[in-house]
Amino acid sequence: MKYYFIAGEASGDLHASHLMAALRERDPEAQFRFIGGDLMQAQGGTLVRHYSSLAYMGILPVLSHLPSILRGMGECKRDVRAWRPDMLVLVDYPGFNLSMAKYARKNLPDTKVFYYISPKIWAWKEWRIRDIRRNVDRLFCILPFEVDYFRRRHSYEVDYVGNPTLDEVVAYKEANVANFPHFIEKNRLSDRPVIAILAGSRRQEIRDNLTRMLQAAAPFADCYQLVVAGAPGIPEDYYAQWTGGFPVRVVYGQTYALLQHSTAALVTSGTATLETALFRVPQVVCYYIGWGRFVSFLRRHVLKIPYVSLVNLIAGREVVPELVADGMTVENVRDRLRSILPDGGEARAQMLQDYDFVARCLGKPGAPQRAAEHMLQFGS
Asked: What average pLDDT is seen over the chain?
């Protein structure tokens, strides 16, 4: 069968590559064309356009690169129509992908449209359910609470296939036995326990969060070493703007290894919060935003969700502390960090116990395999 994948970000490239591998196991004659990245390209097939030319977030970056984004969308539409795949597989990236779903429904009536990693309409832009209902043949969710949300609120049937982050963490742990001496020797670190700093993957996130995180953690540097997980594509000299004067090291391409050897972590919201939980590292979720009081007001009165971290959303209650907008002050972060260190009291033990509950909610590994089986079932 012919599969056309569209993934517009690094995380989508990772998850799509695993799904492609699972499809090929079940369909040896599979042919792939895709908008994606290096990991998808390693699975074989034809890379039409790299996601890096389309991966812009926020109003101003999108507007400033709008001509490039529109050219990419036009190229993708022409290519899909010319190739006429059996399945169009959309991976997250809803602004672009829902437009492609609409185009495929109108111009390729014989092509099945599948959405893997559903748009987060439970948080914002709930009106997108209309486009999903009209233009998507089947929606595959990776967060367990999404099934109940779509069924109860929108009477729309979806499939929970498991969470690919769980697969990736489990696979890493199976392949990499913890070896702290090797980790510190490789990265020229000391033998003190580690506090991990995951300050986001985008320059704006790093600019807004990293210095505040380091200010909060600095008083613990006598007993702990502070290690920042360097984001792909962010050069060392950019980090140097925000780490100057702090006793900190930046390591690249080793986020999982860093978490595997960390005692506690400060983490911006996003998939990293779930990864940290699955590595059983107590954490404080931090996300500074300018105009903090106004943003906090909007969060209370506009956003449809009570939490911003995946850990708390999956649990349905507060498992990890969330310090967002005006709540992210150096003093608040420092107090919460102190409480989850080994000598900080009961908060650490309670969080580790709650992590077990989150892992049970996710179910067993095998998300790409289950998604592939469903796609072949619905696509035949």
From this structure: 90
